[in-house]
Amino acid sequence: MVDTEDAGTLARLLRSRRSIRDFSTREVPAELIDAVLDDARWAPSWSNTQPYRIALASGDLKEGLKAQLLARYDAATKLQRGGMASKLAAFVTRSKALPDGDFDTRFEYPKELTPRRRATGFGLYSVLGIAREDSAARNRQMRRNWEFFGAPVVLFVFVRQELGAYSVLDAGIFLQSLMLAAHARGLGTCAEGALGTWAGPVREAFAVPPAYKLLCGVALGWPSDHVVNAYNPGRAEVAEMLIPVKRG
Ligand SMILES: Cc1cc2nc3c(=O)[nH]c(=O)nc-3n(C[C@H](O)[C@H](O)[C@H](O)COP(=O)(O)O)c2cc1C
């Protein structure tokens, strides 16, 4: 049964969950991870199809994935700086630096959403004391995505594509359920679209059913007391979200 106090608890959890981008090295007990997943599995989905699968890595497996993904990130960064000839060579030799994710993670942002994206990025760099023009420091921070921000656990979220937008929507609901279930236990998470960039190393490590596509990753662990974890990019007001009724 739902208790009247539940609304307050949920409101607090929804408002206080933040993306965690620095973790302590403290391990997460397996029972706690099980409990989080056991709660998250109650997420609703289209016709209860639950069209997602999770690949979970910690310890040596996680370290191995981190090394492989970082090697790809570093190669891609080098390629980016190398100009047209090296990009062409990478294409011809099918370099591992080239993204092999199942979904494109690089897209043109609609004009209307660009200011929010920019404000979020600059806000993060500002908290970290990184100047806008300091591309080396920005690159180092970006690289942290593939270190899973130091988290002891990383999850990769896979989804079936046949239901199109609806299965991705289901995976999103599952993702928020998982993040809140973790947060309610004092654990931190960061959803990472960045981890959808290279699927090869993840597919090599896990027996992913062929129909499942890599959507994103999630870093999971205990938040450290690093200032980055206090960063709150805020939200638009409800009024901004509501679509007005047409006049006349
Ligand atoms: C699907 C998804 C993908 C995301 N990918 C990344 C990512 O690759 N790297 C990152 O640092 N944050 C990522 N985030 C975190 C968002 O930037 C963050 O949720 C947003 O700025 C709001 O901040 P908050 O989570 O602290 O409330 C992602 C969030 C979602 C939901």
Show the helix and strand layout:
Elements: H1 5-16, H2 30-40, E1 52-58, H3 59-92, H4 114-127, H5 135-143, E2 153-160, H6 165-183, E3 188-192, H7 200-205, E4 212-221, H8 238-241
Antiparallel strand pairs: 1-2, 2-4, 3-4
Helix pairs in contact: 2-6
The protein binds flavin mononucleotide.
The site of flavin mononucleotide has 12 residues, from strand 3.
Notable traits:
about 250 residues; alpha+beta; NADH Oxidase; four-stranded antiparallel beta sheet; about 45% helix; binds flavin mononucleotide
Q: Please tell me what the overall shape is.
A: globular
Which runs of at least 5 residues are low in confidence (pLDDT < 50)? none
Ligand types: flavin mononucleotide
Number of helices: 8
CATH class term: Alpha Beta
Tell me the total number of β-strands: 4
Looking at the structure, the CATH topology is NADH Oxidase
Which class do the helix and strand fractions yield?
alpha+beta
* CATH-level-4 superfamily name: NADH Oxidase
Largest sheet: 4 strands, antiparallel
**Succession of helices and strands:** HHEHHHEHEHEH
